Structures are given as C-alpha cells and as structure tokens.
Amino acid sequence: MAKVDLHVHSKFSNHPTEWFLQRLGAAESYTEPEFIYKTAKERGMSFVTITDHNRIEGSVQLKASHPEDVFIGTEATAYFPEDGCKIHILLFGLTENEFQEVQKFRKNIYDLREYIKEKNMAHSVAHATFFVNNKLRLEHLEKLILLFDVFEGINGGRNRINNETWMATLAGLSPDRILDLFRKYKIEPIGNSPWMKSSTGGSDDHSGLFIGRTYTLAKAETAEEFLDQLRAKQTQAEGRHNDYQSLTFTFYKIGYDFSKSKSSPQSQSLISQVTENLFEKRSPTFKSWIEAKKIKSLHKKNQDKITGKFLDLMETLRQDENRPLEEKLDIVYDKLAAISDEFFKTLLQSFERDILRADLVSLVKNISSSLPGIFLSVPFFSTLKHMFRGRHLINELIAGYCPKNVSRPKKILWFTDTLTDLNGVAVTLRKIGWLAHKQKKNITIVTSLSPEEYSSDLPPNILNLPYLQKFPLPSYEKYTLKIPSLLTSLKKIYHCEPDLVYVSTPGPIGFLGLIVSRIFNVKSVGIYHTDFALQSKEIIGDESVVEMLESYTKWFYSAMDEILVPTREYIHLLANRGFELSKMKVFRRGVDSELFAPRLKGREYLEKTFEIKKGIHLLYAGRISQDKNLDFLLEVYKRIVRKNPCVNLIFAGDGPYLATLKERANGLERVIFTGALKHELMPDIYSGADIFVFPSSTDTFGMAVIEAQACGLPAIVSNLGGPQEIIKNGITGYVVSTNRIIDWQDEIEQLIELKIKNPKRFLAMKEAARNNALHDSSWDAVLREIAGETMGQEKQNSDGEGLDYLPSNLFYASI
C-alpha cells in the first residue's frame, strides 16, 4: 500500500489565517520544500506533494528535483458566492496551466466544481468542519456533500471529535439522504454513486513537526496510479489527530522559525533556549552553553525556583534528545505547567501578604513579575478554544447524520468549590455523584481536594484538580477556597471532552468551569445554590461587601447560558434583584425515600445518644452559621420554655457560629448541641424529634427541610427564601413571618398543643409531611433531567414534494 501525506505546507504558504501568527507578523510556514521531501521519505511516505495556499511553487520546485515520486498539489480557497463562506479544496496532479484556471474558478465554488469534473481532477475537500472565516453552517456542509466525492477524513491539525464526526457523517449517507439534499438545494450530485464517499488523510503541517504522521493509503506503484485511485474513490485516511498541546507547540515552532529568519540575533532568554533545545537536534552552541552556565550560577546564588525549573526542563531536553517528538512535547507541557504555577504562586502569595499590609508597591511589582506565567498559559487556552469553536456544528452533525455511529450519553463536567463541607451543596453533589456512578451516567464532579479530605463517602467519579494555594473564606472558616493549577487542570479536563458544564459555586473552581464552557464551546448551566450576598449581610453587615458580592454573583451567573434555581420563589427574588428571568429555571431536588423515612426507634436513639430529657423536642438541623438566624430561634425558645418548661431545643450540625451560639445558650439546660453528624444518622435524629424549626431567610432551598418532612416531621419555616415552597402551610407545617417572635412562638405552641391534645391529627400532619416530601422528589427523575437524552435523533427524510427539476446523472435517471 502506498502512503502519502496529502496536506503539507511549505515556506510558500506565507499568509497566515491564525491571529497568533498575524499578531507576530510571521508567515504561515517556514519549512523548506526539500526538508518536507526528506522528512516524508524518512517517515515511510511513498510519494510526496506540497499543498500551499493558492500557490504551487513549492511542489513545482520539488517535482523538478524528484520527478518520479512527487506530484504537484495546492490548497485552493473557494467561496460560496451566496455568502462568501470559505472552503479549502486540495487539488492534486494539476499542471501549471490548470492551476491558473483554478485561480479564476475558485472565486465561485460551483464553477470550480464543474472545472474539477471536466478535468477529472484528483481532489479532496480539506477539514470540512473547520471555520475558515466563521461563516460555516450546516447547509454549507450539506452542499459540499452534493458537490464533491472525496473529503479529508483525518486532518492532522484538527482534533479527534471533528475528524471522526465528519467521517461518520459521510459513512452514514444513503441514496435517500442524497435525494433529500438534492430536493433541498437543487444542486446536482457528483458522480453516479454520490452517497459513497472516500477519505484522505494529511498532517496539515505548517511547522515541519508532524510531516507524514497523518496520511492517505491506496494501492499504487506509481504516483500516477495513486492519483487514479484518488479519482476512483479508493483511498482511506490513517494517522494521528491533533490536540491543543501539539497545536500550541506548532505555533511556538513557527514563531521560533520566524525569529531565526530575522536578521537580528536571537534572544538568549530562558524561553528562547528552551525553544532551541526542543526544536533543534543539534548540540548546544558554545554561546548557549556559556549562557546556561550563567543561569545556573544565578540559580545557585538566589535559589530561584522558577529559574531552577527552567534549567530542569532544558536538562531534560538535552538528555532526551532522541525521544519521540510527541513524548517530548508532553514532557515540556508538564514542566511549563510547573513553571507557570510558580509564577502564579508568587502572585497569590503577594495578594495574601501585600493586601493585608496595604503594600501596593510590592503588589504591583509582583503582578508585573508574574506576567510571564500568564503568557505561558494563555496560548494553550486560546488554542483549545480555536480547536472547539465549531462545536455546535459538530453537535448538529451528530444529531442529524450519525446518531448510531457517534451517539453517546452527554459527558457532563460538574464544577464545585465544595464537596466535603457540611452544606446542602456538598450533600446534593455527593448524592448526584453516587447516583450517576451506580447508574453509569457520564457525570464527573470536578473539584480540588487535599489528601486528608478524601473519604469513603465520596463518589468515585471525581476529577481532582491540583491546587496552587488555599485559604479560608472569611466568616466561613471551615470552607476553604483553592486556586487550581491552570495548565495541569486544563490537561485533565481536555481528556474528558465535555459536552455540558454545570457549575455549583462561583469560587475559583466554578470560575474555571465557566472558562471551560467557553473554551470547549459547550453549554454552561449555573446552579444558584447559595445567596452569598444575603448571607454576608447577615454575617458581616458591611453594605459595601454585600454590594460587591451581589455584583460579582450577578455577573457570574449572567455569563451562564442557563441558571437553575432551587425554588420558584427564589427565581422571583433574583429577578427583582436584576438577574435575567429568561435564563432561570427550577432546579428540582430529590430525597432518598428509603434512607429518609420514619424510624421507630428514632426517639430512643436521640434521647439516649445525647442524654436528652423527656419532653417535646424542637429540632434545627443544618449549618451553624450566623446567617441562619439562630439567635432569633434562641429568643423564640426562651419565650416558649416560660410556658412549657419541658420543651427541648436541639441544634444538629456544626459551623463557624457554634461556639458563639453555645455561649448565648449558656444557662438553658434543655438546649442541646450535637455537633457534626454523619448524613446517614440524620433519619434517626429527624424521627426522634417532634417539630422541625428552620428560621433562615437566606436559604435558596433548605435540603434539611425536605429531609425532615420525608421523615414525617412537621416543620415551621420563614416566609422569605426557598424553604417555604417545601411546606404546605397548615397541612405539613407552617410558613411564618420572618423575625416576628410572637408569630413563631404562637405556631410552635400550637403544634405542641396539637401533639398533646390531638395526637391523631398530629399524626395525620406527619403523614402529610412525608407524602408531600416524596411527591415529585425522585432522585432518579432529577438525574435523568441532569443527564439529558442521547445527543440527537435522526432527521426524517423529505416527503419528496416540490421537485422542480431532475439532475442528469445516471443515478437519478434510474429512479
């Protein structure tokens, strides 16, 4: 079998389409034609061609030197005249006169197609799903299917999902589908069997790094036989797909070649030395050896970590000179990630130290010194965004053309800054994680955990990101924010290939999730679990802090494609505060009906475990925090025990306000604090109590409320916030005016009296509470909503009406 890399660029491709190269002022390639020939032959290519953009000088030059195994090629930029959408078409075996004709016809892709048919010219449509000028739509791809027979199936410059989706699209064509497209566009299909396409492979190399790594196979002994096989649709694509790391290093290589082409001497910076050692196989020059010695001496003197990591990288490159390029690129990436991390660590430490000392001079200095870390990271992010900018088009193809070939459950990444903390967000996500794991749903929770945070109750489907720095959130001392390592995290996330991003928290990990959704060009869904602005108002009371948090969270969630809010009540509250109503939907929660159910021995367990005296048990469960309005609850309780001295108040949970609340309850012997409890013990706690009291006005939902109700516990909640939607007022509990002590006292005393004097009716309320909690609260249903259905359903064929004319080729003449 003959092998040919049918898509390679030389120094004659001198007009770059990439913004990175345009900004640099560089050409698109600096590769010499002879280097292409030599490298292609070394890598097992039978024949060689060069496909420069709208140029043939490189391949003409090469054919003159190697007439037996070189054929002329070009990559012609063609245009759809109706809207100017650019398409690149590879043409092979053409003469110089034919090339001049192509230059005239390529301004109209329909005219060019007719010329290709007339000349029976070997061709292949290059990277069909690539947005050359941001005008490409599904209708253009459908027209290309009618216009051409051969397509580039594996383009070495594009990622796997683009290549494989397009290959599956072409493989799934049928005579009926071609007829549908003809009726839709009135374009005569090419050939007698236009539903049968063939594929080619080419590296699309611009830098000299990947020549011959992607190629086309055909049975041929000579170059002309190979071209005949291409015309006869008897070729197939093989070889590597691209990734964002390789593409970034391609740009670095072109930039390096550009710097070498300048007359000024090359900079001997650390970056330039790394580039030279990566891309050149020759031994280091005496000058670079002297420079390295200087750097080593400086490192020994100052013990600078960043310089040390650069030296380690250069030493690794020198030692692994003969290692395969892709392995070298992977090593370089990991070491650049470590170097970038050191820059960012310096910046983060400066924020923590210099802001507290109000040392603005040091802060500005450290920000400036950290800019190289940003410059190291940004190209990888922008390259990844470049690779996925046509993602919506890929999804359209999967939905309409290849559901059987490429169909798969959506890959969901769920970003959160909290997973092990004692809060509703963490509990909900752990539950979703376990359910997704057991039901084999493709949901991965993305977070950042230290080794001591791992425990057996965490689901296995966690993507743990390494972090650079961690610090406690003010007023939430047990809640630690972690700043993830950017490049290392990006590499882990890239291999997940997400189709959908959920974000539960607006912290650093959540912010990374938002960035990921933009880079991968996938839908982002923000979950508004926590009202940080209202909570900070209750805890800190500083209006400037409240306004800052409100502005940030509003900006953060407005950047999402969709916002899920736990209750309808909170949707209205947020809309009144300026959040986009059109983006908001209700995020249903589930409750584990088997775990959270009435326990017969719950009362015995509660009283025995915590040495609680007999009487009426009021229970609060949740985070012990100032924003939960627990001081108010304590005041209500003080009034109740004056009339009902046998009433106990139990606080189940832990939090930053626990010590203060204990101090304020000093002297109240029937106030009990359980401390932190395992989640699986909560059904016994709920079942052992008589009335659930939840005075918070800042909760968006109140997971503890629905769990208590599921255990048959009547509840009293505030009329502000989300918990009121869980309660059926007067049936499963009461919704009471926020901060009105007399109202809370009346309702609690009414329930106490009901339990004592009318136990039958109180029991009915308990049963109603459980039924209400279980109604439409299935975790399985919630998970199905989150995971969604398989990506797309097959489009229906046209009914055949509205046919204005028939094409002339033999296939349609036979219908």
Structure description:
This protein has 33 helices and 23 strands. It starts with a strand and ends with a helix. The chain folds into four domains: 2-242, TIM Barrel, CATH 3.20.20.140; 246-384, no CATH class; 411-586, Rossmann fold (3-Layer(aba) Sandwich), CATH 3.40.50; 602-777, 3-Layer(aba) Sandwich (Rossmann fold). By secondary structure, the chain is an alpha/beta fold.
Beta-strand portion reads 5-15%
Main beta sheet: 7 strands, parallel
Secondary structure category: alpha/beta
Indicate the CATH topology of the largest domain: TIM Barrel
Q: Helicity level, as a percent range?
A: 40-55%
Strand order of the largest sheet: 11-10-9-14-15-16-17
Overall mean pLDDT stands at: 86
Radius of gyration: 33 Å
CATH class of the largest domain: Alpha Beta
Low-confidence stretches: 264-268, 298-303, 789-815
